[in-house]
Amino acid sequence: MPMIKARYPADWDEIALEVKNAAEWTCTQCGKPCRKPGVEWVHFAYWILITHPHWFPLTQEDGEEKIQRFTLTVAHLDQDPQNNHPSNLKALCAPCHLRFDNPFRQHNTYTKREWLGQMTLEEL
Question: Of 5, 78, 80, 84, which residue has the fewest beta carbons closer than 10 angstroms?
Answer without folding.
Answer: 5
